[in-house]
Each structure stands twice: as structure tokens, then as C-alpha cells.
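Researcher: I'd like a candidate sequence for this fold, 139 residues long. If you have to choose between options at a position, lean toward the conservative one.
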């Protein structure tokens, strides 16, 4: 199992290299010194069904290291990554699709009610006031 001390001791090399942690999680060190945490997860679905994937990989990213020490900023630390890995395993065990959830979240964000959509909806559903109707009759 990878510890924080071992994680801090990882030095960049000319090529990306990986150090195993546990349960499909490992640390990948880039030539620039950045660290990401790829995870191998069991596949989704069952054999013979469309969309079946025997093994899949997701990556929890971190920001670049600072001063040759692995200080993780705006990313995930090792314990947080292990927790997220466990959540992903649980989602797969419940039969949820990680990619489908990601797409649905993106679609929901694009379908939010913007001011233009709100104004259009308001004017379509709201009847004009009596003074507005009277003014339109004059035109």
C-alpha cells in the first residue's frame, strides 16, 4: 500500500511511470512531476449485452507538484482518491453507469434556465396586462 511519505518521494523521470497502491489504484508520475491516480475498475454490464466493458479505467487528477514536493492543490489526496475509488466500486456494484451519470450531469447543466429561456417562458405563459391589451388595440 502506498503511503504519503512514499508519494512525496516519487521523482519525475523521462517517461510516465506508475506505482501500485491497492485494489486497482496506482499513482502515475509524469515527466513534469505531476501525479494522477488511475483506477482499474470492473466492467459495466454483462457479457453479450451492448455496452459491455470487461474492465474500465478512470483517472482522478491532481495539479502539478510544487517545489519537488507532492503538495496536492485543487485535486485529490491519496485518502480522498481511495474514498472516490470505493464510491466508484459501489456505483458499479449497484449497476449504475459512471459514464452515463457524467453525461446526465453535463446535460442537466446545459438545460438550466438561462435568462433568455426564462423570459421566453414568462412571455409565453403570462397574459398581458389590461393596459397593454388596450394599447395594442390602438395600434
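Model: Candidate sequence:
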Amino acid at each position: 500500500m502506498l503511503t504519503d511519505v512514499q508519494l512525496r518521494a516519487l521523482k519525475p523521470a523521462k517517461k510516465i511511470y506508475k506505482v501500485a497502491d491497492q485494489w486497482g489504484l496506482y499513482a502515475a508520475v509524469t515527466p513534469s512531476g505531476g501525479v494522477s491516480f488511475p483506477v482499474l475498475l470492473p466492467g459495466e454490464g454483462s457479457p453479450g449485452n451492448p455496452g459491455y466493458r470487461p474492465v474500465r479505467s478512470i483517472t482522478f487528477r491532481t495539479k502539478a507538484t510544487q517545489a519537488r514536493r507532492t503538495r496536492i492543490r485543487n485535486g485529490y489526496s491519496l485518502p480522498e482518491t481511495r474514498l472516490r475509488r470505493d464510491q466508484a466500486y459501489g456505483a458499479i456494484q449497484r449497476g449504475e453507469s459512471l459514464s452515463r451519470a457524467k453525461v446526465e450531469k453535463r446535460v442537466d447543466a446545459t438545460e438550466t434556465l438561462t435568462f433568455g429561456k426564462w423570459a421566453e417562458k414568462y412571455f409565453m405563459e403570462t397574459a398581458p396586462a389590461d393596459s397593454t391589451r388596450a394599447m395594442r388595440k390602438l395600434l
